[in-house]
Write a structure and sequence with these properties.
10 helices; Alpha-Beta Plaits; 257 residues; alpha/beta; Rossmann fold; globular; five-stranded parallel sheet; 19% strand
C-alpha cells in the first residue's frame, strides 16, 4: 500500500494553489497517494489517515495567517506522522516557515522539509507596486515539483531505516521578527481600515461570505461581519459591486512609509 499524503493549502489569489498542485504532482509521480485539500475543507480524519501532512499558505504581514496558525494548533496528535510546509510571499517570508514547522513538531510530527516561492502580492495597499508580479514563475513551479519528489524520497529512505538529515528550525532574530510581531491582531485593528457594507450596492451574491477564509461573514440577508477577521480584505477585493467599503487613505500613508 503506497504512503498517503494530505496536502492542505490555503490560497486566495491562486499563487499557493499553483505551488500545491505542482508539489502534488511531484509526490504522486514518486508513488505517494496524495490528496489536494483546500484548508477550509480539511477534516481531522483525513489527517489521521495520512502518513505525510503538507501545509501551504501565503505569508500575510510577514507571518503565516491566523487561520493557518489556528489550523495547525487544532490538529490532532501527529505522533509517528511526517510533515512538510511551504509558503508563497511577495515581500518577505520572515519566520513563517519556522513557526509552522516548530508548531508541527510540537504536535509530534517529523518535519521533512520546506519550500518557498515568490507570489504576486495584490494586497490593496501595495496595489500598483507590482510586487513579485509574474510569480510563481515556471522555474519556481518546476522547483515545487522537484521538492515534492524529494519529500517522497526522503520519506521512503526513513521508512527503510536509512540515515537522513532533517532540517532544524529555529526562530531567526532579524529585522522582520519585531515587524511580524507588530502586525499581530491588535496592531492591525488599530492601523487598518474598518469595513462597511453599503446595502444600496450589495446584490447579496454571497461572494464575500464564500471566499472568507474564517467564515467570518454571514448573509442576513446582507453581509454581516463577525469578529474573526484576519485582515486579508479579500471580501472587498472579490466584491464586484464594491459594496464593501474601506477608507484606505490613512492606512496607505502608514504602510507605505
Amino acid at each position: 500500500m503506497p504512503p498517503r499524503c494530505a496536502l492542505v493549502y490555503f490560497s486566495q489569489t491562486g499563487n499557493t494553489k499553483k505551488v500545491a498542485e505542482r508539489i502534488h504532482g511531484g509526490l504522486s509521480a514518486a508513488g505517494v497517494a496524495t490528496e489536494l485539500i483546500p484548508m477550509k475543507s480539511a477534516k481531522n480524519q483525513k489527517i489521521k489517515n495520512s502518513d505525510i501532512i503538507g501545509i501551504g499558505t501565503p505569508v500575510f504581514f510577514y507571518r503565516e495567517p491566523l487561520n493557518v496558525e489556528r489550523f495547525i494548533k487544532n490538529l490532532p496528535s501527529l505522533k509517528n506522522r511526517f510533515a512538510f510546509v511551504f509558503v508563497t510571499y511577495g515581500g518577505h517570508k520572515s519566520n513563517s516557515i519556522e513557526r509552522m514547522a516548530i508548531a508541527l513538531r510540537q504536535k509530534g510530527a517529523t518535519v521533512l522539509g520546506d519550500f518557498s516561492a515568490l507570489g504576486y502580492d495584490t494586497f490593496q495597499p501595495w496595489d500598483g507596486m507590482e510586487i513579485a508580479k509574474g510569480h510563481p514563475d515556471v522555474k519556481e513551479l518546476k522547483a515545487a515539483e522537484v521538492f515534492g519528489r524529494a519529500i517522497a524520497e526522503k520519506y521512503a529512505k526513513i521508512k527503510k531505516g536509512e540515515r537522513v538529515t532533517l532540517p532544524r528550525y529555529k526562530i531567526k532574530l532579524d529585522f522582520w521578527l519585531p515587524v511580524s510581531m507588530f502586525t499581530l491582531d491588535l496592531a492591525k485593528r488599530t492601523m487598518l481600515p474598518k469595513k462597511k457594507i453599503n446595502k444600496s450596492k450589495c446584490n447579496q451574491c454571497e461572494r464575500c461570505a464564500k471566499n472568507c477564509p474564517t467564515d467570518n461573514i454571514t448573509m442576513n440577508p446582507y453581509p454581516t461581519l463577525g469578529n474573526d477577521c484576519i485582515y486579508c480584505y479579500f471580501c472587498e477585493k472579490v466584491c464586484t459591486k464594491k459594496a464593501i467599503e474601506c477608507r484606505w487613505s490613512p492606512a496607505f500613508r502608514i504602510l507605505k512609509i
